[in-house]
Here is the input.
Amino acid sequence: MKFNPDKPYNKLPNILPDEKYWRLLSIYEQVNKANRAMAELKGRLSAIPNPDIFINTLSLQEAKDSSSIENVLTTNDKLFKAFTLDSTADPHTKEVLRYGKALVGGFRVMKSGKKFSVKLIELIYRNIKKENDGIRDFSVYIGNGYRRIYTPPCCRDVILDKLNNWISVANLKSDEIDPLIKMAILHYQFEAIHPFKDGNGRTGRVINVLLLSVYGLLDDPVLYLSKYINEHKNDYYRLLMGVTESNNWEEWILFILKAVEKTSKYTLGKVFTIIELFNNTKEKIQGEAPEIYSFELLETLFTQVYCKYSFLVEKGIASRNTASKYLNRLVEIGILKKEKVGNEFIFKNKGLYEILKK
Here is the structure.
């Protein structure tokens, strides 16, 4: 049944769509490219002794890009400082931080063997939006500033029926459809169901990364998938509507598959650049300040952009006085930059910041 943009789309078809819409040569050619790129990213990360050094930094970049799609904007510097200081930040920066925590937290839940559920999806939404509500029981609509272009299903019982269908498909492991094609279909369906009053796009994009984990394609939440979507935002929304209006699954699925391919390669490039900086930093400390070098100290400098004395104390690397000596010595040899925020000193990893801000 064709949808009417002014009425709740309660006849939104359940998934999966007829295979004639996705079992196409163009899609299989692109899914092969995307799978190769993802496999290389996963393989390279698994060969690194401690891939955790990428989780904080790269997941924050995904959070920033995904949030900016919804015009929730902050800067890299504000984001990295707020992540380190737990101090007062502007509302947009706080919202981006919540997205990052929801992403990493959700990823860990799925890695523990849990499956998708209404409870988990509501938890992701609440963590992003800092709200206590859940599945909406009222109608909402999506407009472009001039007119209503889509009214999602309503209300709670209808939404739950469609969301439970989504969950059953998401949790079903099958060889009949490639996981990346399935992720593209699931992402459309989640956005079309639009189960919450706000934050649906960001919740759906967190779920994308969780799906990659569930399907064994990614071991860590480090993919910048939202970067491509943000750079092609108009196409993203146009193609979402194309599925709703005319079952144009081919273009939509190709868009998501290209996003996976491009961002896998981009993320891998970032990983290589960070590894190179990590090794160069190790050599510099060993050469110019060998008296303070330890691998634990080096790792701490790369777990996030800003460091502070307490990080070294909490990890048992040094007492507070010794931590001060270590970090200030790293300022002297040009690795860190010291800044004062309020009554506290923080230390920026200059090279890591430059890599991430590009």
